[in-house]
Amino acid sequence: MIPKDLRYHQEHEWVRVSGTQATVGISHFAQDALGDIVFIDMPKPGAIVKAGQQIGEVESTKTTSTIYTPVSGTIAKVNADLKDHPEVVNSDPYGKGWMVMIDMSNPSDVDKLMTAAQYEAFLAGQKH
Amino acid sequence: MTSQKHIAILGAGPGGYVAAIRAAQLGASVTVIESHALGGVCLNWGCIPSKALLSVVELGDKVKKAEDRGLLVPGPVTYDLARMVARKNKVVATLVQGIATLFKAWNIEYVQGTGTLRDRQTVTVTRADGAPRDVQADAIVIATGSSWPNLPQFPIDGQQLLTSQQLLDLERIPASLLIVGAGVEGCEFAALYSGMGTEVTIVELMARVLPLEDEEISLMMERELKKRGVTVMTGTTVERLERSPTTITAHLKDGAQVTAEKLLVSVGRGLNSSGIGLEHVGVQTGRRGEILVNERMETTVPGIYAIGDVVGKAMLAHVASAQGKVAVENIMGHQATVRYDVIPAGIFTLPEIGRVGVTEQQAREGVQAAGQDPDIALKVGRFRYAGLGKGQATGDTTGLFKVIAESASGRILGVHIVGAHAADLVHEAAMAMQVGATVTQMAEMIHAHPTLAEGLMEAAEDVEGKAIHQARKRTQ
What we know:
Number of helices of chain A: 4
Number of strands of chain A: 9
Oligomer: heterodimer
Strand order of the largest sheet of chain A: 1-2-3-9-8-5
Low-confidence stretches of chain A: none
Mean pLDDT of chain A: 93
CATH topology of the largest domain in chain B: FAD/NAD(P)-binding domain
Number of helices of chain B: 16
CATH class of chain A: Mainly Beta
Distance between the termini of chain A: 19 Å
Largest interface: A-B, 18 and 14 residues
Strand content of chain B: 15-25%
Shape of chain A: globular
Helix content of chain B: 25-40%
Shape of chain B: globular
Number of domains of chain A: 1
Largest sheet of chain A: 6 strands, antiparallel
Structural class of chain A: alpha+beta
CATH architecture of the largest domain in chain B: 3-Layer(bba) Sandwich
Number of strands of chain B: 23
Strand order of the largest sheet of chain B: 3-2-1-7-18
Largest sheet of chain B: 5 strands, parallel
Distance between the termini of chain B: 74 Å
Order of helices and strands of chain A: EEEHEEEEEHHEH
Helix content of chain A: 10-25%
């Protein structure tokens, strides 16, 4: 459940790059740890964000967790469907469960993120 | 019976009517003068009616989630606001009648009309039919309360610009509602109307909603409001209003515009201390018009007492009741004072908030002022509803218990709860604080399983890092 074409952040966000635009969501591991997601608080389009900054929150029936942006830039679009159907993040974290699109101000931010293989190793390391 | 003391009480809200009954219990002969309705704002246009309406939306929220839990309800949830208001009116009428019955049982005289102090022992009452009447008394208790905002920038018209009193009687659900002021009342109405499908925007001058609450609690409530679809705009204010026959557009300080069908003015309650003859007897008032009282609730004029909102301390119904009891105890020759450090309070948003004592920010400022490092002098315990078996079983997984304690002594300084039944749950903490129990004693008391009250035990345990069911965190 770790798509090869994405890059990953240590807080379990993924990034899909298309030119200078990055689509961001949370990984299968994250949604599984959270359990049933009931609400996602997301930033407003136009907001300027910095890599590593908190941009929102995910609330599940177990806990509330912060969403960090792995890249800097301007929020271009948020996934409005998640407002009424946050559970899509559980069922399709890498597809319909995407959260925001960011116009990157510094596309080289992506280079600092983990590859799928690195993320897989990172998760294995977390499982003690 | 010639030695029986006669007490006149101006106002029959939760301060005045409670004072009247306690005074009668202590042997006084009592006359209560009220210009509007027994029970005052709290019962007729505040606490009770808003809860009657909110309870329906709380039920509706549950029904909306019913199918997920296996309860099949045919068709979508729809609200009949006219019927909700009719039921609300019935609830209010029952409680008002209850006070009238208690007054009869205690031989309390109830005079309908507007009372004015004429001298230290006389209240002149102007009745609805215009006939004046003088009430003689050995002591007078002023319990005239507070009133709805009347600010020049928000000319209330009862059609587009409304007070909370008027909003409680609306019989048609508006398409959109702009609420100015995200205090207790503003947030409660945001929860109510968003639940019925109104597009709600709430504007708050301060940086966060519920600016007087603990910051963490405020931020949680902001998220809860967003979850309900409410647009929350903080750190800004309405500069100018533009009216059309069907809508009202607010131009905000930050350049934004909000257009809505109705606007609720939820800022600037006034104290009812003018026009009641204070000047005739020399009762002094403060800067905001609040009647100045000592700890016995006596004003600057001996024999004249004041209680409730009009003294401008904690503007809460239950504080008014406590002050009312204290005032009449003193009049009747007993010594009594009000303890202001343990005042539990509820905010009936969806979900609720319950609080007692100081916020974390206030606690930190307090220890800093005493020259201590707040990170050492204070400890905070937290526990989420999601970690409770009962919360999971009933679906009440949103919420937080937060306990603030003094590290060295274990003294509980404040407890804040957001979540289902929070306003009821906070009373255990209030009792602990009232009797001086430590956070360890609260943690060690056995709590029944499965209950939401276990959350308070776990939060108290978490003060020492020993909560048993601390919810799993995504990263740590």
